[in-house]
Structure formats: structure tokens, C-alpha cells
Amino acid sequence: MIDLGQNVLGQVQKPRKEKTYRMQTKKNQNISKQKKASVLRGEFLLKDIKAFREFCAYSQDSIRSVEVGVEKLPEVQKLLKGFSVKVIEARSEDYFSATVWLECFEVKPAALIGTENTLILDRVVDPQNFGAIIRTASFFGFRRVVIAKDHQALLSDSVVRVSRGGLAQVQVYVVSNLSRAIEALKSNGHWVVGGALDGVPIGKGKVQAGADVALVVGSEEKGIRPGILSKCDETILISSKSGEVGLESLNVSVATGILCAYYKGVLSKK
Q1: Which of 64, 68, 110, 204 has most Cβ atoms within 10 angstroms of its Cβ?
Q2: Residue 61 and residue 53: Cα distance in Å, rounded?
Q3: Of the residues 103, 131, 156, which one is the last residue of a structural domain?
């Protein structure tokens, strides 16, 4: 075991006895098998070193341990320089995995203060889509995702894997009532935009440069519920170049990416 916070950086301790080593390795490798259901918080296994780099850069406190072979060890040592994380040497030279702690914070709508641009998800139940949306949010600088606790994908192995490190920069907040959350964001100065088939074409919205924006996207099957849609300041339609195909033809994660890219450009203009 290598403790990079307590030992001289770059030096590798002698491997543990074979029996102890196997037990530790088995424990780490079984984490993903224990996390099949959606949860609000828990430990998850990263096997993508690119995702691990994101956590090293933006969320070091989330990292609990690393198991790595000699091939990737120098990079791991460099990434972890300056803070203490348990590192276990793997038998396979090219093996890598890291255990991270992730959490969705349950908050009251009134707690959604601040100026962060925000994504609000209305019943996005597919873990693959949820993970892709988190990755998109991270890329375009939407650091806050708001979801309801019920009828919504939460944290799972699939979400963590597909998000590819996006959860290192994006915080997920869970509220009991999305309508009240939207009202709280509006009272805090956010302009709330929903993606819907009856909206104005993208590019013709009213949002101004420099505004704080909350984007709302709906479920894969039914879109945004009417009650949630009525709380939006405006609704936006994504159409094809010909104008004949609307939002319903796009996967929700793809539609979210288009909306985030567009508003990132609008909000960055001075």
C-alpha cells in the first residue's frame, strides 16, 4: 500500500503479503456489484482514468482509494501529489480503479441561492441519459443540477460511468417539489427556460447576455409536465434546419446538450 500523503512521493512501499493483498483487491472490485440500485449517496468505482483526472483536479476530497498497476502508477502519483489517498498496487500492470464518494444533497427549494446556471430535470428516469446530461452540464459550465427525489434516476454505476468525471464539477440537488424549486430560482433572479414542442424557435428567446439561467428538460417519453412548464419564463423549441422536426425527435441528453451549448454562447456574450 502506498500512502501518498504520509510517505515520500515517488517511492513505492513493498507489496503486502499475498493473502492480505487479495482481500483488499477483492473488496474494491466488488463495490460495483453492490451498487445496482439508484441511491442518493455512496461509494462508486471509477475504471476510467480520464474520469479520475477530473476528480483529482476538482474534487480531491471525494477520492477514497486507488488500485493501480505499475504502468499507470507514475501518473497516479503525480495526480495525487499533495494529499493523502490510500493506493494499492494491483497485480496487473495496466489495471486501474478508484473508489469515490458521491452524494446528492437533499435541500429545501429556498436553499437554491446563488448565481450558478442550473439544469432542472423533470423525471429523467434513464440512468444513461442522466449520466450523459451530467457530463454535458459539466462541459458547458452548468455546475448545478436539480432533480426530484421520486420518478427520477439517482446515482448508480451507470450514471457514474456515463458521466465520465462530470460529477467532479457538478453538484446534484434533490428537492421534494420541482415547482417550488423553480419559483425559488426565479425569485433569486434566474430566467427559467423550458424545452418544449410549443416553444419559440431556439435563437429567438428573450434571455439576455449575462443573465442567470435555469434550463428545464423533461422525461424521455412525455417531456416536461404541464405544471412545471407553466412555471417557465419561456419555452424553446429545437428544430431541424428545415424546421420540420421538433424536440420530440431528439434524445433528452442530446437536446440538453444543444440547449446548454446555445445558452453558454448567449450568456458569454458581452
Answers
A1: 68
A2: 13
A3: 103
